[in-house]
Amino acid sequence: MYTRNQRLIIGGLILLLIILGGLGLYMYAYKNKQQYTLPEAPKSSPKQVELVFFHLNGCGPCGQFKPVWEDLKRKIPNGIIMREVEARECKPEDKIEGFPTVRLYKGDQYVQYQGNRTLEDLIDFCMKNK
User: Residue 125 — φ and ψ, nearest 5°?
Assistant: First the structure.
C-alpha cells in the first residue's frame, strides 16, 4: 500500500505525462499543418457540379456516414462528380468547421449540406441544388 505522499507524487507524475503528451501532439500538429494542401482540382465550368465529402480519419461520425456516402456513389444523379477530401488536405480557405461536412460546388460557389445524413435526404439535396 502506498502512503498518501507517494500517491500524490504518482498522480502528479501521471498528470504531468498526460499534459506533456498533449502538448507534444499539439506542437506536432501545429508545426506540420502548413505541409498539407488540397490537391489542385481541375478548373470546372460554372455548369459542373461536384459533391465533396470532407472527413477526418478516425472520426466517429465520419465513419458512421461513410456507408451512406458509398451508397450515394451508386445512386448519385447524373452530372454530379463526387470527391472525398481528408482533413489534412483542407486549406484554411475551405473554412471547414466540423467533420463530416458535405458541400455541393458549382464552379466557385457552394451550398453546404445541413440535413440528416441519410441517402434519401442527400439525393434530394443534390436534385434541388444541381
Answer: -60, -45
